[in-house]
Amino acid sequence: MKTLVLPLMLVAGISQAVPPGGLTSAPAFLDVNGDGLISEAERQAYTESRANANAQGQGGKLWDGNGDGTVDESERQVAVAELKKRMDTKVASLFEELAGDDGLLTLKEFSTLPRFDHRPPQVAANLFSHLDTDGDGVVTLEEFFKETGRGKPPAGETGHPR
């Protein structure tokens, strides 16, 4: 289970990020959520898209939908939407694996994340409390997405009903 939790936090964007054009020399359009930073999740989604394009023989033409040699604003918007969709789907999948069969994340499950190793238990409890907006002791996929600034979970992935 611990091999799963680190990717969840990385993909969820709860990790260090860099400004567009910063250490990664990443283009600004990769900033899918518009926070001014390229998160690890945004970088991973882009890397996966590039790998898929290369496997399909598209190479550098991945986002140039009309083939004119440049990525215009409408093509950029399509690319951002596709990257966000891939990232959100991955986050939802990892969340549900961590939460288990009931699809509800408990403090105990949340506390197993490596970021809380060697930290007082209250650190995890405080963050969990922030995510648990209705105070029922569990975090749903919807709560997780909303409280991490992702909006709504991808269609078809809404967690398990209680």
UniProtKB/TrEMBL annotation:
Q: Which residues form the EF-hand domain?
A: 119-154
Record Pfam families: EF-hand_5 (PF13202)
Leader peptide range in chain numbering? 1-17
Q: Where is region (Disordered) located?
A: 51-74
**Is Signal tagged as a keyword?**
yes
Q: Where is the composition biased (Gly residues)?
A: 57-68
- The entry's protein name is EF-hand domain-containing protein
What does UniProt list as this organism's lineage? Bacteria, Pseudomonadati, Verrucomicrobiota, Verrucomicrobiia, Verrucomicrobiales
